[in-house]
Amino acid sequence: MPFIPHTEEDVEKMLQAIGAKSIDDLFDEIPADLRAQGLTQVPPGLSEMEIGRLMSARAAQDGQPLVFAGAGAYEHHIPAAVWEIATRGEFYSAYTPYQAEASQGTLQLLYEFQTMMANLTAMEVSNASLYDGASALGEAALMAVRANRKSKSRRLLIPRTVNPVYRKVAHTIVKNQGITLEELDYDREGGYIDPASLPSEPGDFTALVIPQPNFFGVLEEVDALTDWAHSHGALVIGVVNPTAMALISAPGEWGEMGADIAIGEGQPLGAPLSSGGPYFGFMTCRKEHVRQMPGRIIGKTEDLDGKVGYALTLQAREQHIRRSKATSNICTNQGLLTTAATLYMSIMGIEGLEKVAATSHDNTVKLMNKLEAVKAVERIFNRPVFHEAVIKLSSPLSEIQTAMADAGIVAGYDLGQDYPELENCLLVCATETKTDSDLDAYVETLTRVTT
Amino acid sequence: MLIFERSHEGRSNTAQILRNDVEVTDIPAGLRRKQRAVLPAVSELQAVRHYTGLSQKNFSIDTHFYPLGSCTMKYNPRGSNKYAMLPGFLARHPHAPEQMSQGFLASMYDLQEMLKDVTGMKEVSLAPMAGAQGEFAGMAMIRAYHDSRGDDARSEVLVPDAAHGTNPATAVMCGYKVKEIPTDAQGDVDLEALKQAVGPQTAGIMLTNPSTLGVFERRITEIARIVHEAGGLLYYDGANLNAILGKVKPGDMGFDVIHMNLHKTFSTPHGGGGPGAGPVGVSERLIPFLPIPMVAKEGDKYRFLTEKDRPQSMGRLSAFAGNAGILLRAYIYARMLGREGMIRVSEYSTLNANYMMARLKQEGFHMAYPERRATHEFILTLKKEAKETGVIAMDYAKRLLDFGHHAPTTYFPLLVPECLLIEPTETEDMETLDSFVETMVKIRAEADADPDMVKGAPYTLPVKRLDDVKAARELNLKWSPDTE
Q1: Whether the domain at A66-77+353-450 and the domain at A80-342 fall into the same CATH topology
Q2: Which of A74, A245, A442, B389 has its CA 20 to 30 A from that of B409?
């Protein structure tokens, strides 16, 4: 019996102690007409060896392609120690640290994680993570409505340069509470929000969302956008890539005052691509808004002897205490992924992270330069980018992507799916994992399939 | 000691720092980082030793009995982790074309089919990333369903008073008001109160069955009839699915939508507080509203269903396809169990809980519902003991830690005073259960002899009892060099 230790003798003794004749008797409070008639779609059990064979075959079936897609998930090298330590049973099989004294490992790690994320985004405080970047944006929108004391508005402005799936997810999360996300269009030449195009009388709004870099890889004029939002009494929610934070200005540094809330996808910090999850969302903010923050938060405290320890804090915000008045229904965080991220940041250090950011950026720039020689390719958007860029192809993209896939290359992300005006436009990213010959393989294959 | 306190400026991990010379010249100075972020500057060995050391300060399933009620802390098979972390799965980009994704998609499709079977629901979406997100998806579907019929005056969701806190919080996130329904003396929903509460304003009811009181709601069919007749829908919180796996199907009880906690019932890692996975299953009428993406099989090919296929979907919940790697672990676990193994999960978790309950009763402890069968968990109340000695449930919980047992869930559900919610799970052996019972007897004797000693517990852990009030009052949420 898989994972069940009972011997026949145990079962007999246990039933005797209970005073029941059979295990089935223990279900006698369930009305007879509700009892299931067995399972038909679940196959018979497999040994670990057999399931190992099956999964190995399926994993191999999907191959190990050269990945040039980013669009929110980035292939970075992960030091071997990260997952060796993160999957230690003491981290892997523990739960939410409700019993603080028996969870000091997880709690101290999360306190260190909060410090690292606050530092990376140049913000004052961090929570212990949310599900992923997209849902973090939804939570940030709800938080901004609660936190902005100057505005009673339930309207947020969100540029179309924000990841389109993030916009969809955020809409799903906020729409039933009467909160609207109003889109701001972008400049077609630059692929960014031109601060000069912002309305002088935008009406009452509670927050402006600013992506950096934006979904096209293009860098936004964050200082001007931040100051514009603040001048209208709105908060600023930064949506940032954590790798980029090693090189480009962090939300806490934006404009005169800095952003109010920063969120993003934590995946680049030690989580494998893994088909899109599990990843983790991070959220940092100004200290004055911490009571409006969703999710677990760890604080430093002392024990009876005055010894330093760590505990869940500000729990009065949360569902298990506040029930219907909680800041969010969120219960778990993405503990295992924050463990990996904390290890990743500790092992890489800021120097390592800067090198990853610079090399990823450099590889993408090199690839764009090499692609200039390909006839079917045109670079679009003339503004500075970080480690991702957009090219336009002269023939239908779906055929090109299929042909590239046949050659073992994930060519990029098809922007036409979300932006009708960007038909046949491909969002391409080459991280530090790519060598010069990988870049050449991309260029050669693209040349071949477009001629 | 914090990792930052082990840092030395200038120390770095050369094995992890790329050897190329690279200078970024095309990003204008105004957009560059102004002040370098502080991260630890330690050697790889220092980091490995530091975090290995931290791990050893945790209780976990791999190291301790962890009978945390309503959380199903059972053994997380290593095989599930190993095969979900095969290089082919880890390397798959979420936007990889479907032609490069058939192995992954086949596993997701198979998992959907198995979950349909065990829950008796018509279709399943794997999209939600945790139980609470599954709840949100479920209630948002109920709302989308009513709205699609122009039945948009339904403003209220019914929630039993014993419910998990996520239930009312979720209903509010979906724009509903919450009305609590009381529980009767036997732990069942108070039917009279329910009949009074339903009406044209009722959007639905959120129920956990077996309930958080550790008993099976016997009149579920009657509840379903009352709510359905009022035009409301039934939401099933799958927190306690472990208790009935293969024995009863929520679909047969009349539920319209359910969420499952794969990190509980399908033994994916709790990871120190996540990631979870909270797939949702629905009855016929809610199929169009399921969250996307889902996986469809056409001939012998698999593909994602998107907005184009499901225009009425309640929407997307994550940037990609949910916690894919966790879903793979659940799939591997489900295949190892197989159909016979799934039924054994509920049988042996129920056997273990009833055995512990019987033994504790024998030893003179008081159960919240002594006349009822335990499901996979049960509630012990220390009200009498607390009154006699002043040693409360929290003190028992802390003292249990000294004896090497993780504490059960304390003070939940809120309506049973001084309670411990105990869930042993099916993967524990009889000796471990006996040892927990003997420890409880020992602690009670200690409480009689020296209550202050018990109230000072724990004594053997890295820290003694922590000051939660100080943590909240003097907020210190990150390390900084100036304050140390």
Answers
A1: no
A2: B389
| Cβ proximity of A73 and A215 under 8 Å | no
Query: Residue with structure tokens 């309503």?
Result: B70
Closest-CA residue in chain A for B431?
A: A10
% of residues, chain B, pLDDT over 90: 95
To the nearest 10°, report the CA torsion of B127, B129, B131, B133.
-80
**Nearest residue, CB atoms, B94 vs list A58, A126, A276:** A276
| Amino acid, single-letter form, for residue B222 | E
CB A448 within 8 A of CB A406: no
Of 3.30.230.10, 3.40.640.10, 1.10.260.40, 3.40.1350.10, the CATH number of B79-337 is 3.40.640.10
CB contact under 8 A, B18 and A359: yes
CATH of A66-77+353-450, one of 3.90.1150.10, 3.20.20.210, 3.40.50.300, 3.40.50.1820: 3.90.1150.10
B94 is written with which tokens?
């979420």
- Taking one residue from A and the other from B, the number of pairs with CB-CB distance under 8 angstroms is 674
Residues of A in contact with B116 (CB under 8 A): 41
Q: What is the pLDDT of residues B310-328, one digit of tens each?
A: 999 999 999 999 999 999 9
| Over residues B356-362, mean pLDDT | 98
Å from A108 to nearest chain B CA?
8
With beta carbons under 8 A apart, name residues in chain A contacting B99. Answer: 402, 405-406
> According to CATH, where is 3.40.640.10 located in chain B?
79-337
| ipTM, two decimals | 0.97
CATH number assigned to the domain with residue range B345-469, chosen from the 4 options 3.90.1150.10, 3.40.50.10420, 1.10.3210.10, 3.40.50.1820: 3.90.1150.10
CA distance A151 to chain B (A): 21
Residues 6+ apart with CB under 8 A from A347: A79, A81, A82, B13, B16, B44, B47
- The type of residue at A348 is M
Q: From CA A311, how far away is CA A204, in angstroms rounded?
A: 39
A138 to chain B, minimum CA–CA distance in Å?
A: 10
Show the tokens assigned to B188. 């069942």
Q: Would you state the structure tokens that stand for residue B82, as one six-digit string?
A: 């190993």
Contacts of B315 in chain A (CB under 8 A): 168-169, 171-172
Q: Which of residues 348-387 of B touch A (CB under 8 A)?
A: 348, 350-352, 354-355, 358-359, 362, 372-374
B186 touches chain A (CB under 8 A): no
| Whole-number Å distance between alpha carbons of A131 and A125 | 18
CA distance A94 to A359: 37
Domain boundaries, chain A: 66-77+353-450, 80-342
- Are the beta carbons of A388 and A163 closer than 8 angstroms? no
For residue A274, the chain B residues in CB contact (below 8 A) are 89-90, 92, 324-325
Render the burial of A150-173: b for 16+ CB within 10 Å, e for the rest.
ebebbbbbbbbbbbbbbbbbbbbb
How much is the pLDDT for A220? 98
Let me know: does B194 contact B206? Beta carbons within 8 Å.
Answer: no
Determine the CATH number of domain A80-342. 3.40.640.10
Helix/strand/coil percent split, chain B, to 5: 40, 15, 45
CB atoms near residue A395 (< 10 Å): 11
Backbone angles phi, psi at B172, to 5 degrees: -65, -40
Say whether pLDDT at B484 is over 60: no
pLDDT at A292: 96
In chain B, CATH 3.90.1150.10 sits at: 345-469
